[in-house]
Amino acid sequence: MALIVQKYGGTSVGNPERIKNVAARVAQYRSRGDQVVVVVSAMSGVTDHLIKLAREIMPLPNEREMDVLLATGELQTIALTAIALHALNVPAVSLTGAQAGIVTDGVHTKAKIHNITPRKVHELLNQGNVVIVAGFQGETPEGQVTTLGRGGSDLTAIALAAALKADLCQIYTDVDGVYTADPRLVPQAKKLAEISYDEMLELASLGAKVMQSRSVEFAKKFGVVFEVRSSLNDNPGTLVKEETKSMEEVVVRGVALDKNQAKITLVGVPDKPGVAARIFKALGDSTVNVDMIVQNISHGAGSPQTDISFTTEKADLLKACKVIEKLRQEIGIRDVITDEKIGKLSIVGVGMKSHTGVAGKMFSVLARDGINIGMISTSEIKISVTIDLARGEAATRAVHEAFIG
Amino acid sequence: MALIVQKYGGTSVGNPERIKNVAARVAQYRSRGDQVVVVVSAMSGVTDHLIKLAREIMPLPNEREMDVLLATGELQTIALTAIALHALNVPAVSLTGAQAGIVTDGVHTKAKIHNITPRKVHELLNQGNVVIVAGFQGETPEGQVTTLGRGGSDLTAIALAAALKADLCQIYTDVDGVYTADPRLVPQAKKLAEISYDEMLELASLGAKVMQSRSVEFAKKFGVVFEVRSSLNDNPGTLVKEETKSMEEVVVRGVALDKNQAKITLVGVPDKPGVAARIFKALGDSTVNVDMIVQNISHGAGSPQTDISFTTEKADLLKACKVIEKLRQEIGIRDVITDEKIGKLSIVGVGMKSHTGVAGKMFSVLARDGINIGMISTSEIKISVTIDLARGEAATRAVHEAFIG
Predict the structure, then answer these.
(1) Which residues of A touch B57 (CB under 8 A)?
(2) Looking at CB atoms within 10 Å, which of A175, A381, B60, B67 has the fewest?
(3) Which pLDDT belongs to residue B404?
(4) Domains plus CATH for chain A?
(5) Contact between chains at A72 and B72 (C-beta distance less than 8 A)
């Protein structure tokens, strides 16, 4: 007998028929003798509808009241899911985030989980119930409803799995698992049987968004093994867990292409201490998210100058340029060049730690196909390069073929 | 400075525009220096939609889960109403029934309020906030969400007014107040400036349904003065309160016609002790609501027989007949006659206690117009008669003219 936490997203519980399907799957696990805790999101469309109502009243509604409003979506789903299990003669009880013991800080609309005391969940499980818990929400110690922000229901499931010491946590979604590349781009992409937390984190931050980074970080921190799988079929998904020796045998776990980056190059920047700090502090203060940064060696003898390039999301490009324009005179930047036609191609794998020549092989493949490399950035388990956007998809396929097949 | 509890029903908060109107009214009271507590229902249509979703999953859903589901409707409205007040720069905080301190028993879908500890409400009011409370809901001492059943939001408002020792409780609805008769039936009907609890209770039970009886009973028990008025205009409504000396000067406060009654006559029932008890106990056990009961004098010497007539709602007629059919042989009832073509015409007024000849005058008016009286039933402040349904509306107008004008 295992204790399993299952999480179903908004599409999986989008209407009464789908909620019945979820119940049927839960009932199946339970009939094997497992104890099941189910975490559900709001039915798809409900949260957006509520946001629309609030914005019709006021463009920037109060965040405490938005939490009261938005938390109702999940409350509806827990009740309907419990009813669907009753219809299958499975005893089931719904719990709000607060009733499940999820205590958060008071940062409304993006609260952090402080601690979980799942006494009530254990009690109901031991009485033979399936326990349905509202995702995405918690309560402050003072009894205020809070929500956890984007990807909050995943976080609820993983945090509950940790607190309950569950044997497995399953994240049901509309994809089959984590793939070696986006299957729409690379037809040869394979579903991974397993992946390490760190690889998953790199892939998430690279735009292969199956899950929000913070849920994966939480799982890593508390050692929660979870499976990403589809609610539409019975195929096994991808296990996300601590890396093992055998994982290192695979050099490249996945290839990702991010088409949403833009590059800014500052030409002729005085090469003296504190200049780069001032530039990137100003960008950070204006909430511009900077990803890759590359600084070339300086040239010029008396007052040496250098070039600095960085990437940011296309959506932040204009804001970044405004920040730079303000600093330009003051710092003395000769020229600013922007480029929106770039793609960021990355390969990720814990095996890179123990294998050499990975970067060389990647660059050779690109060179063979005549694809020019712009910026390069590496971590212990990742190599990213910027390339011409027009060649992005072909490059992704070539690199995938070279490393994965 | 007064403390006012205002309750707005589902139509009054039916969309963002109407919620803004509610906020404007609340802001107006507050700008006079009043402290305002607002009780709101679910937006019209929301509760029905949720019930429909649940029934698509299971025809008779679990009542605890229905409470979790249905309570979300009011939670959405409290948040949106608070936001609408913020848009007018009025500080406002929403509270769930539980947060407002409303503790109920555990009878899901029709819970009774046990007690209210409105500490939080006082605290927020004293900080200068308008406090928005979710109607229709409470929490058991164990922390389970409950709902109060039909008319529950009125009950929340009146119970809160009692607990807060409010100066006034206003029930905003889509009618202007309580009238001397249904204005659609009697064009001369006048809005009442005031009415006693007992008169309101009689009128409510007579089908002039502005409010559920139990809210009025609660108000009477705790001496809560409340005003029924329209959320669509600024007209003063009707004050409902303990009867005063001056109220007794008005003999008839209102005239009501109930077209939903049916009459069952049991002909030739043995006139011996315990027979009537058996009949009406059996009806009660089958949840048939019996209203008027009339038993004629007995006739026959050796084994005396009598006729018993009673009325019930048309919807219960079939059920009532089945109950009677089962008893017929056993008790020895000669014949059963049913009549769905009756109307119940009633006049209500606390002044009847001190005025004589009221019944005589009513019967004369009906006789003058050739309207035959079937059954008669009276209380200290009410006279009801059954008449031919086809003559019901004309009779209502004639009686209204004779007593009220």
Answers:
(1) 16, 19-20, 80, 83-84, 87
(2) B60
(3) 94
(4) 3-174 (3.40.1160.10)
(5) yes
Q: Report the residue from A68, A93, A99 with minimal CB separation from B94.
A: A68
What is the C-alpha separation between A376 and A378, in angstroms, rounded?
7
From the candidates B43, B51, B76, B140, which should be mutated to test the interface with A, based on the most A CB atoms within 10 A? B76
What does each C-alpha distance from A27 to A4, A51, A87, A176, B353 come to in angstroms? 12, 33, 11, 21, 65
Give the span between the Cα atoms of A280 and A298, in whole angstroms: 19
Burial readout B194-232 (b: 16 or more C-beta within 10 A, e: otherwise): bbbbbbbbbbbbbbbebbbebbbbbbbeeebbbbbbbbe
Nearest CA-CA distance, residue A86 and chain B, Å: 8
Q: Are strands B290-295 and B261-270 parallel, antiparallel or unpaired?
A: unpaired
Q: Please count the helices (runs of H) and the strands (runs of E) in chain B.
A: 11, 20
Cβ A93–B64 below 8 Å, yes or no?
yes
Tell me the three state secondary structure of residue B138. strand
What is the pLDDT at residue B207?
Answer: 60
Of the candidates B16, B65, B143, the beta carbon closest to that of A79 is on: B65
Contact (Cβ atoms closer than 8 angstroms) between residue B381 and residue B198: yes
Interface with chain A: mutation pick from B26, B65, B137, highest number of A CBs within 10 Å: B65
Residue A57 has its nearest CB partner, among B61, B83, B143, at B83
Cα–Cα distances in angstroms (integers) from residue B162 to residues A84, B5, B50, B225, B226, in the given order: 40, 10, 31, 9, 11
Contact B84 A143 (CB under 8 A): no
- Helix, strand, coil percentages for chain B (3-state, nearest 5): 40, 25, 35
Measured between alpha carbons, how far is A24 from A131 in angstroms, rounded to an integer?
Answer: 15
Q: Best interface-test mutation with A: which of B80, B95, B120 has the largest number of A CBs within 10 A?
A: B80
| Cross-strand bridge partners of residue B347 | B255, B383
B93/A54 Cβ within 8 A? no
Q: Report the C-alpha gap between B77 and A274 in whole angstroms.
A: 53
Residue A90 near chain B (CB below 8 Å)? no
Cβ contacts (< 8 Å) between B78 and chain A: which residues? 68
Q: Does A53 touch chain B (CB under 8 A)?
A: yes
Tell me A100's DSSP state: T
CB-based contact, B20 to chain A, within 8 Å: yes
* Separation of alpha carbons B138 and B93, rounded Å: 18
CB B306 within 8 A of CB B267: no
Q: Do B65 and A83 touch (CB under 8 A)?
A: yes
**Neighbouring residues of B302: CB distance < 8 A, sequence distance ≥ 6:** none
Average pLDDT, integer, range B195-220:
86
The 10 Å Cβ neighbour count of residue A196 is: 22
pLDDT tens for chain A, residues 1 to 405: 899 999 999 999 999 999 999 999 999 999 999 999 999 999 999 999 999 999 999 999 999 999 999 999 999 999 999 999 999 999 999 999 999 999 999 999 999 999 999 999 999 999 999 999 999 999 999 999 999 998 899 999 999 999 999 999 999 998 889 999 998 899 999 999 999 999 999 887 766 667 888 999 999 999 999 999 999 899 999 999 999 888 888 999 999 999 999 999 999 999 888 898 999 999 999 888 898 998 877 777 778 888 999 999 999 999 999 999 999 999 999 999 999 999 999 999 999 988 888 999 999 999 999 999 989 988 889 999 999 999 999 999 999 999 998
Alpha helices in B127-223 (DSSP H): 152-164, 197-205, 213-222
Cut 0.90: pTM above it: no
Collapse the DSSP code of A45 into the 3-class scheme (helix H, G, I; strand E, B; otherwise coil) and give the result.
Answer: coil
The SS3 assignment for A270 reads: strand
Give me the pLDDT at residue A271, please.
87
